[in-house]
Design brief:
Layout lengths: L2 E3 L5 E3 L20 E5 L2 E5 L7 E5 L2 H15 L2
Antiparallel strand pairs: 1-2, 3-4, 4-5
Length: 76
């Protein structure tokens, strides 16, 4: 699990149950993207975090992994 702490002390992370971030203080959860079917393929729309739209995935799990990879590379 990747965690980023900015200079103001704000912690950014993908929501996972690996680490209980609630122990560090109050938290807010915000949607980072939308993984949706488009015809026979899956698309990831990262607009909520001002990211691109990526897609053409055959499986939803591949789309979710691409979402995670993009966020870890560009946000965290």
């Amino acid at each position: 699990m990747q965690v980023r702490i900015d200079p103001k002390g704000t912690i950014l992370a993908l929501y996972q149950e690996t680490l209980d971030l609630g122990q560090l203080g109050p938290s807010e959860i915000h949607r980072a993207s939308h993984v949706e079917p488009e015809g026979d393929l899956w698309t990831v729309d990262l607009a909520p975090i001002v990211g691109p739209r990526i897609g053409g995935f055959l499986n939803r799990s591949d789309a979710i992994q691409a979402e995670i990879d993009w966020i870890e590379s560009h946000v965290l």
